[in-house]
Amino acid sequence: MPTLHDVARHAGVSIATVSRVLRGISSIAPDTRERVLSSVAALGYAPNPLGQALRAGHINAVALLVGDIEQGWYASLARDMQVALEEEGMDLLLFNLGHSETRLREVLERAVSMRLRGVALATSDHIPGAALEPVRARLAEAGIALIAVGRNLEEIGIPSVAHDDEQASRIAVGHLVQRGYTPIAYMSRIRKSATGRVRFAGYLAGLAEHGIARDPAMEWDIAESYRFKAGYNVMRDAIARGVGMRSVIAGSDELALGAMAAARDAGLRIPEDVAVLGFGGLEWGGYVRPALTTLDADTSAFGKGFCTVLKALAGGGSAPPVSLVPRRLIARESA
Amino acid sequence: MPTLHDVARHAGVSIATVSRVLRGISSIAPDTRERVLSSVAALGYAPNPLGQALRAGHINAVALLVGDIEQGWYASLARDMQVALEEEGMDLLLFNLGHSETRLREVLERAVSMRLRGVALATSDHIPGAALEPVRARLAEAGIALIAVGRNLEEIGIPSVAHDDEQASRIAVGHLVQRGYTPIAYMSRIRKSATGRVRFAGYLAGLAEHGIARDPAMEWDIAESYRFKAGYNVMRDAIARGVGMRSVIAGSDELALGAMAAARDAGLRIPEDVAVLGFGGLEWGGYVRPALTTLDADTSAFGKGFCTVLKALAGGGSAPPVSLVPRRLIARESA
DNA sequence: TTGAAAGCGCTACCAC
DNA sequence: GTGGTAGCGCTTTCAA
């Protein structure tokens, strides 16, 4: 691997000059520039990012912290974040949190010791505001941006790029009411998930809008993750208990599919006996039968949004603390 | 951010001593060690990986190159790779290739200029062996391991950790024959995908084993990706053409679900009219109805396998060029 | 317009 | 057992 020195020697100039030519900054004699450039080409020189990073004091990369990359929405986000970052010349470090608070703190500490440019916090779990204070101080001191993606953390002062989930839930309720699928049950992580709480609030607001009284029997807070199995179990138990819902809003497409499976296994028809509506807009939702009605997720907007906020923060200007992107309802067969 | 110097000053020793204490190497007077350690704690010192990396000449990270992170198997792989790497103190850089050959070369070049420890090549696309020669030479020169994950690339001399897909296809054929689901169609990327070719070879071998003649009408090579839409379209067209298959082996769970949707939309029952069998073992397969019969993927074995090969390569010993892990059939309802 | 040189934070070699 | 010091590759003053 050739270094600046090699190029300098080959071109018969100093390393400073080579560096300047490469950075395209300050004035260089045309023929010097020419010579340097051809040496660079001849040697196949590429700058060593390690040297640059050490000098600059930070590495041109961003950490993406996800709850569980196997969940479709995180995977999709990872893809779009990587694309957006690459356009800005940055790399993506992926960290799977697995819903652990401890691990969140560790990874955040890691980000500061690694001198990253920023951290994209994309987990739906409860964020222990107080416990995070020390790390956040160090992050700030090191000039590392902490930005929430896919959830709204402005209440604890973290700039966020998120969906307007409160509105989304209201849209869902409206859709189900209009089609006559009442009473409407709500299945999600609620208490233990910030995102879940917001969506739940939207659900309640939606009911209120249509003059429907809330019914605790229709509110299914699940302790586990947002995955298939939880949806299956909760739905199966609700059916067994004889809860008379005519539709279910599920907090993720995974939960929704699990719920659909349980309903089918219990001999219920979808949507005739019970309608199911998910959150996420994952691609497979269009291919299961009946096809899943869901609220889409705009992960590419998040990738771009993150970069915008990151640059705004770096530029010193205080970024808009929150930018909310709306969800659209994808009406298919299940509801 | 405190540096070695700060700690040294605080503890009243030289930076060399601090470094030694931290690395736990060579002998240190107990009380000196004590003093240094308490200074480290007092200052909240954490080593700067940039300095370490520059010194060492490489960064403790590995690039994972996937075809499309949205495909479930890649997401699952990403998760398990990250876990396995973290256990070895390495980070995971994620790159989405999007099936582009050019981009593959670029990213590989990037890996050498970044001085990574290794590259995990996990795309099912055709690898242009000749076109890659120059980069591979640079990779080798820089001591960066290139390891194929999830596919067998030994034929072009790349150490691989992969599934035994030839055997897997034979198992699939055997299963379908035994249940009477013949004739068996094969739907996948074949010509344009190395992995696809291996699986196809297994399909042919399986037919031969059971004394069944191959029938070109049953061999559906698809040009597009391994995703849902392709599965849907190909299946729909086959049905329209009146191809008389009684079952379909699909090259991915996504293709399989797409095929199932097309069959259902055409009024066919699964598996009574046509059975469908996928590749991947993705979690949602257990929750669609009918539940998908599939050949599982052991991504956690790949994470560990990659690390093993990486360390073997680093240790100078030539790693076993290929380690094949078997797939198990998960027999559910669809076939 | 160009060169010399000072570090960025770290490890390892060589003295003592 | 400990300290001094030479770089790793780069950018950026400061001089010339």
Q: Would you spell out the secondary-structure blueprint of this structure?
A:
2 copies of one chain form a homodimer.
Chain A lengths: L3 H8 L3 H9 L6 H14 L5 H8 L4 E6 L5 H16 L3 E6 L4 H14 L3 E5 L6 H13 L3 E5 L10 E4 L1 H14 L5 E5 L5 H16 L9 E3 L6 H14 L5 E4 L2 H13 L9 E6 L12 E4 L2 H16 L7 E4 L3 E2 L5
Parallel strand pairs in A: 1-2, 1-3, 3-4, 4-5, 5-11, 6-7, 6-8, 8-9, 9-10
Antiparallel strand pairs in A: 10-12
Helix pairs in contact in A: 1-2, 1-3, 5-12, 6-7, 8-9, 10-11
Chain A binds a DNA duplex (16 and 16 nucleotides) through helix 2 and helix 4.
Would you give an account of this structure?
- Chain A has 335 residues and is an alpha/beta fold.
- The first copy, chain A, folds into three domains: 4-47, lambda repressor-like DNA-binding domains (434 Repressor (Amino-terminal Domain)), CATH 1.10.260.40; 55-162 and 299-325, Rossmann fold (3-Layer(aba) Sandwich); 165-296, Rossmann fold.
- The first copy, chain A, has helices spanning 4-11, 15-23, 30-43, 49-56, 72-87, 101-114, 129-141, 165-178, 194-209, 228-241, 253-265, 299-314; strands at residues 61-66, 91-96, 118-122, 145-149, 160-163, 184-188, 219-221, 247-250, 275-280, 293-296, 322-325, 329-330.
- The first copy, chain A, has a six-stranded parallel sheet, with helices on both faces.
- In chain A, helix 1 (4-11) crosses helix 3, helix 8 (165-178) crosses helix 9 (194-209) and helix 10 (228-241) crosses helix 11 (253-265).
- The structure holds a DNA duplex (16 and 16 nucleotides).
